[in-house]
């Protein structure tokens, strides 16, 4: 139990610091930067207390909002994906999720990508919808969602592949 709390606390801090100190200063093509802090939400234990998970997702988003001056958009987007995560897990992993036997680094690449892609796109869509908050700019919202999502998915997939513990 203590080990799980330690690793999740460390993952929370590393996600926030990586976003604030590194990723917020990357400007691919002048405006695209990866939003890797959602790595914490993607990898949070699947069988953890749901209420605690929603609170931590809100705290994560709010922390990013405080440093990014984004007025709560990150907090709202994080809570949305934390709330729908069980449905996405059930869709991506099926019966394995139902039996609580899923470990993201041990799943098939296709299932892992479906899970990551769905949550990243939903997060980014709601984030940019709330940031832009103008229906006449829906094309800008969709363009930002697409390009930021592609870059974020690449970085998150690479980091999961590089830093996951392989079970023998």
Automatic annotation (TrEMBL):
Membrane-spanning segments: 6-24, 36-60, 72-93, 114-133, 145-163
Keywords, sorted A to Z: Membrane, Transmembrane, Transmembrane helix
Protein name: Rod shape-determining protein MreD
Species this protein is from: Kordia aestuariivivens
Biological classification of the source: Bacteria, Pseudomonadati, Bacteroidota, Flavobacteriia, Flavobacteriales
């Amino acid at each position: 139990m203590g080990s799980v709390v330690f690793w999740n606390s460390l993952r929370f801090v590393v996600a926030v610091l990586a976003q604030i100190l590194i990723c917020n200063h990357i400007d691919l093509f002048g405006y695209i930067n990866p939003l890797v802090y959602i790595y914490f939400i993607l990898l949070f234990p699947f069988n953890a207390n749901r209420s605690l998970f929603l609170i931590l997702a809100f705290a994560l988003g709010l922390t990013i909002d405080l440093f990014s001056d984004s007025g709560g958009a990150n907090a709202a987007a994080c809570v949305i994906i934390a709330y729908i995560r069980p449905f996405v897990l059930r869709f991506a992993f099926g019966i394995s999720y139902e039996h609580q036997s899923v470990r993201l680094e041990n799943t098939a690449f296709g299932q892992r990508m479906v899970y990551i892609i769905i949550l990243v796109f939903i997060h980014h869509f709601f984030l940019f919808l709330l940031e832009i908050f103008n229906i006449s700019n829906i094309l800008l919202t969709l363009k930002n969602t697409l390009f930021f999502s592609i870059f974020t998915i690449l970085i998150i997939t690479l980091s999961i592949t590089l830093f996951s513990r392989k079970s023998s």
